[in-house]
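Supplementary Note 2. Why include the ligand at all?

Several targets in our set were suspected to adopt different conformations when bound, so apo predictions alone were not considered sufficient. For every target with a known small-molecule partner we therefore ran a joint prediction. The input for zinc ion is given below.
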Amino acid sequence: MRSITHLWVQFPTRHKIYIASIISFLMLILLVPTEKATASRQNETVPERLQPGVRYDLSLQPVVPIENKKTSEQRFTQPEVVANESALNDELSSTEKKVGESLLEASAPSLPKIDWRDEKIRRNDSLAKIFERNSIPAKTLIEVSRSGKAVDTLVRKLIPGQVIQLGFVEDELNQIVYPLSQLEFIEIHKTETGYSAQQLKKQTESEVLYAGAEIHSSFWNAGLQAGLTDNQIMNLANIFGWDIDFALDIRKGDSFSVVYEELLVDGEPAGFGNILAAEFTSQNQTFRAIRHQDGEYYTPQGNSMRKAFLRAPVNFKYISSNFNPRRLHPVTGRVAPHRGIDYAARTGTPVVSAGDGKVIKSGYSSLNGNYVFIQHGKEYVTKYLHLHKRYVKTGQRVKQNQKIGTVGATGRVTGPHLHYEFLVNGVHRNPKTVKLPKALPLPAAELKTFKQTANSMVALLERNKNTLLAKTSQD
Ligand SMILES: [Zn+2]
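The joint prediction is reproduced in token form.
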């Protein structure tokens, strides 16, 4: 040591500075690891024993695969400062939970895996027989039969031909689905204590659609071509049934336009939608109807479409010929109108009362055959002749649209038809042209909101008609 000190003293000052700087440089290299040194370590395996005060760079291989974006975001948004160990544990468990949930979400349809079997219900089938065919134990049948009130339908009213769905999890009955209609179904599912049955409704969506057409062959055909269902066509005829005689008054060139609501179940049209507004032009006379909250139809001015008398006491769909302006009288063979209107239809076609009233005569005569006369208020009487069958008795009260008999060929006739008469104060009148009692208007309180709806509906109808006209002129 002494010699080193001696040597050091002997060095010139310039050399001393060089040596000192080299030493301090070497010390620096030894103490502070450079970036390069750290980088090279990353590729090495992590030493089993960690040295205190040394920074180890660990390549983070996530334990849970980061498939879910939420999971990785969560990882980075975790607070950086962790107060203590228990807090850290909480954090971890919540992360695990989140990861677990998201994994469950991602693979929901397969977890738990339900094995579905469709079972077509046979004649005289029962839940017990169905269970037996599917090797479901009697114990399960007992549990299912105790699953709640909704199960009663399955126990009592299984409809042959319907399909009941049985869902199994590892060969154990887990769910039952039984459709009641396009909209409703019964669902039974396994719970911790047994089974639970519920009557459920499928979710529906609605959209507003419109349709319209000009009539070329018949109203029915035009309706079908416009995309309306049988029910909608009938409803449309019912809405205007007080103003238009659909059996005899429809002519080529008449037109209609409808705004309706369509319900969608599972994205499929369910056909339960209402007609919201409609317009019908018959022989240059235009009628409009708007649906109100009460489910009834009113003119855009707010007067009820319902009137004291129906235009026709037979449904148009039974009338053999819609377009026959020169209809010959079934007896005289002449075109000349007589005291009533004749509806040629098949024997057995229903005949309804044109309005509320009281049957003043239900009988038979050689001329009229089976006949029914109905008094409506003090002024009006309607008569229905040549009936095949009569369903009402003298003195009986009847409602508008109530079935009073069927079309026949009794009395002095050559073929089946209904002869209909309309009398005002004992005088025969033409029911199509006679002035009838005014329809009831909406109460003033409802009129304001109704008119707002009516205006927008009329605008929709107009727009629809114009689009339709543009389309047909292109064809
Ligand atoms: Zn006649």
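The chain has a mean pLDDT of 78. The chain has three domains: 115-201, 203-307+442-475, 309-438. Comparable summaries for the other entries are listed in the accompanying table.
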